[in-house]
Write a structure and sequence with these properties.
The longest helix is centred in the C-terminal third of the chain and has 14 residues, at about 270-285. The protein contains twelve helices and nine strands. With about 280 residues, the protein is α/β, with parallel strands linked by helices. The strands form two sheets. Strands 4-3-2-5-6-9-7 form a seven-stranded mixed β-sheet, sandwiched between helices. The chain is elongated and about 70 Å long. The termini are far apart. The chain has two domains: about 5-205, Vaccinia Virus protein VP39 (Rossmann fold, 3-Layer(aba) Sandwich), CATH 3.40.50; about 220-285, Helicase, Ruva Protein, domain 3, CATH 1.10.8. Helix content is about 40%, strand content about 20%. Helix 9 packs across helix 12. Bound molecules: S-adenosylmethionine. S-adenosylmethionine (SAM) binds near residues 24 and 75.
Length: about 280
Amino acid sequence: MRLTDISTIRSLFERHGFSFTKSLGQNFLVNPSVCPKIAEMGGADENTGAIEIGTGVGVLTTELAKRCKKVVAIEIDKGLAPILEETLAEFDNTEVIFADVLEIDLNKLIEEKFPDMDVILCANLPYYITSPVIMKVLEENTRVKSLTIMVQLEAADRICAKVGSRDSSAITVAVNYYAKAEKLFRVNRGSFMPSPNVDSAVIRLTLHKEKPYKAENEKLFFEVVRCAFSQRRKQIINPLSANFKISKEILSREMTQKGISPTARAENLLMEDLVALYHIIEQLK
Ligand code: SAM
């Protein structure tokens, strides 16, 4: 069955009485070249287990199932169940869990379903949960080796920007703390049904085996990062001093001592500067 074929999708919908729910980000891929590339570039192979988020009619699920030892897909919309029963019928290495991915205990799922395998995550993500999904996988310290995911083009540029560049933001720093971020390829809006108003890109986040920068109190580190970027084009000393209730004089002196200009903007700071800033705040607050 060609799951990127529009008439095949329409026939599946008609037979199973399914209609799109826009609020769930249901833009299904109809460009046949995209899913094989996501699976290949995501590291799918016979020794690996894959987690997929959001199956749609199973277009990426089947590409993962062909290549991986096992696939566990999480889909929120139970209305897709009869369709998936049909489209995934030939794969006995694939299971669909009907749940909200944000409610799932990923570590438990990985231990139960993939006890003896490397684990990758691949998805054409619903855009409304891009950042929460990425942060959930990264912050929960899962065994996932990499995330190869479709996101809005603008989000791809933000996430994969260099820390210390004009495009960087709090999510750039957060992702870089845990992983190496790469933009793999662009996918135009016409590759989806229905077609969204924006283009997309596939990115790959490969988790660091050893984090190059380590903040003992990660919660505080990310609070410092979010605060520094809250007024991204302004001098960081103002929001930091107000948020952490530290006088500007003291903060300015400590920053200068650590080689960070008190007039710096968040977008000018490198990872080592942000970690140094976190150490300053940790000592002073
Ligand atoms: N993988 C399919 C494809 O490429 O055609 C579908 C991708 S579509 C952009 C996003 C999918 O995620 C939809 O099937 C939608 O129902 C599902 N979804 C939306 N929110 C979700 C959530 N919170 N948890 C799990 N799945 C979700």
